[in-house]
Design brief:
Helices cover 37% and strands 20% of the residues. With 416 residues, it is an alpha+beta fold. The chain folds into 2 domains: 241 residues, Bira Bifunctional Protein, Domain 2 (BirA Bifunctional Protein, domain 2), CATH 3.30.930; 87 residues, Rossmann fold (3-Layer(aba) Sandwich). The chain has an 8-stranded mixed β-sheet with strand order 1-5-6-11-10-9-7-8. Helix 1 runs antiparallel to helix 5. The chain is elongated and about 90 Å long. It binds adenosine-5'-triphosphate (ATP) and magnesium ion. The site of magnesium ion has 2 residues, from loops.
Length: 416
């Protein structure tokens, strides 16, 4: 037997309703916030991610699904959503339309990681990209979008952590002092962090090794090194969040794993799904579009892991909708009634009524058991007499007193 690939998951027919439930909430939020969906390809030129995500990131260094296609091009399965969206934004001159451009996506994401709870090799993200506005209002709105989804799902135990990692100018100074701190503790840091110290010291703050995490708690904090403009942006954002009553914690140690962030970075973290607790991560990336060959376009966004979101929801007992079953089950008594039953459901479906019949040659008793187990609301029993008289019993499975004899010509009228 061929088995599923490590780190990938099937969504079985009995679970897909949870995904639909979340996706429906996302699409309604998109409407409420004026976001339009963007769908970009599953694979792109490898170069896009190397440039867009950053050469010193874990994603580009270790996690990409990269291969040569038959034409000798190096292509990569998308390891995140922003680079593709930014490429499309530039390539299609989306900035020619009145700004801002507010987009969202729901996409599979591929990363070659060590599979564990909450960490897959193919996962799915709901992402938002708010392009064209440098205002902290845009940062606030993006945060509120994520928060609104949690609220509407009834998830209220996520902590919002906010930080600013400044701009390339003020980060330069910070990188120096951080590097000094890291170097002075070099012996105790992990091998990967030792490498990070030279190439991109900020990355060390994102390390998940216990010893590094502990050492990082004493590292100098970036907030102390922000330039006036970055500090004002940060303060304004916090002020807006305060003003509309969004709880948050300023956490000077979150830096995010991607190279393109500037100023605001934020995470929504859960403490009830184990070590992989970050459900949503995002921030501002004012230099990304320009660094990818576009104009200078400020932007802010997030990526939210939907598998982790589902884990959080289930761990705190939040319902993600129910499996859906068609409204009506038409039960033919015997072989002679099969075609008639099939015609009835055919006609009802033309009218938009959801219905099914027996495809398994079952006895009436077995059909009734089946209909009950599957949760059909109504069952119509069809025998020889019923067809002759053009009338049949409509059973209401939720209300035994609600059974009634109805005409086969206008079944749909009774299905309420
Ligand atoms: P982590 O620190 O957990 O590796 P990350 O910083 O790599 O996360 P992002 O690139 O910001 O994550 O992705 C956004 C969100 O996507 C994460 O907050 C998480 O919910 C989800 N995510 C990231 N990687 C995985 C994965 N391998 N499996 C499942 N979900 C993931
Ligand atoms: Mg990661």
């Amino acid at each position: 037997m061929i088995r599923i690939q490590k780190g990938t998951k099937d969504v079985l027919p009995s679970e897909s309703h949870k995904w639909h439930f979340i996706e429906d909430k996302i699409r309604k939020i998109a409407l409420d916030f004026g976001l339009k969906e963007i769908r970009t390809p599953t694979f792109e030129a490898t170069e896009l991610f190397v440039r867009g995500v950053g050469e010193t990131t874990d994603i580009v260094n270790k996690e990409m699904y990269t291969f040569m296609d038959k034409g000798g091009r190096s292509v990569t399965l998308k390891p995140e959503g922003t680079a593709g969206a930014a490429r499309s934004f530039i390539e299609n001159s989306l900035d020619a339309a009145p700004q801002p451009t507010k987009m969202y996506y729901i996409t599979p994401v591929f990363r070659y990681e060590r599979p564990q709870s909450g960490r897959l090799r193919e996962h799915h993200q709901f992402g938002v990209e708010f392009m064209g506005s440098p205002s902290p209002l845009a940062d606030a709105e993006v945060i509120v979008i994520a928060k609104t989804l949690f609220d509407r799902l009834g998830i209220n135990n996520l902590e919002l952590n906010v930080n600013s990692i400044g701009c390339p100018q003020c980060r330069k100074k910070y990188n120096e002092v951080l590097k000094e701190y890291l170097e002075s503790n070099k012996a105790s840091y992990c091998e990967t962090c030792k490498e990070r110290m030279n190439k991109n010291p900020l990355r060390a703050l994102d390390c998940k090794e216990k010893t590094c995490v502990d050492l990082n708690k004493k590292a100098p904090v970036v907030l102390d090194y922000l330039c006036d403009k970055c500090l004002n942006h940060h303060k304004e954002l916090l002020d807006i969040l305060d003003y509309i009553g969004i709880d948050f914690k300023v956490n000077p140690y979150i830096v995010r794993g991607l190279d393109y962030y500037t100023r605001t970075v934020f995470e929504f973290v859960s403490n009830n799904i184990g070590a992989q607790g970050t459900v949503c991560g995002g921030g501002r990336y004012d230099n990304l579009v320009e660094s990818m060959g576009g104009k200078s376009v400020p932007a802010v966004g997030f990526g939210m892991g939907l598998e982790r979101l589902i884990m959080v929801a289930e761990n705190c007992g939040v319902s993600l909708g129910e499996e859906e079953t068609p409204l009506l089950y038409v039960a033919p008594l015997g072989k002679e009634q099969y075609k008639e039953a099939f015609k009835i459901i055919h006609n009802l479906r033309q009218k938009g009524v959801s219905c099914e019949t027996d495809y398994m040659d079952r006895s009436l008793k077995a059909q009734m058991k089946y209909a009950d187990k599957k949760g059909y609301r109504f069952v119509l029993v069809l025998g020889e007499n019923e067809i002759k008289q053009n009338k049949a019993m409509l059973k209401d499975m939720k209300n035994s007193g609600g059974d009634k004899e109805i005409s086969l010509d206008d079944i749909e009228k009774y299905l309420i």
